[in-house]
Design the sequence.
């Protein structure tokens, strides 16, 4: 039986690679809407952050989320990401 390749993605907070399913994905679609993608399959530019509160705070402090998506991030998105991270921690 053939082994399946596990997709790896890089956290924008700590810049370490993790399995895709272990990360929180934030996506910006063609219309410019930014949302948290719990399925990991939404169309658009996606960035990942590991489910660690220190990485979340580092990404906010250094504006990495804003730079990666090249857009202003609404406050409610930050709150939603924080809720997902705290729930899974």
Sequence:
């Amino acid at each position: 039986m053939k082994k399946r390749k596990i997709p790896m993605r890089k956290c924008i907070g700590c810049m370490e690679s993790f399995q895709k399913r272990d990360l929180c994905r934030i996506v910006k679609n063609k219309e410019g809407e930014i949302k948290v993608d719990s399925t990991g399959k939404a169309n658009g530019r996606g960035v990942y952050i590991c489910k660690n509160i220190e990485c979340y705070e580092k990404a906010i402090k250094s504006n990495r989320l804003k730079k990666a998506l090249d857009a202003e991030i609404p406050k409610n998105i930050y709150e939603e990401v924080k809720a997902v991270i705290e729930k899974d921690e």
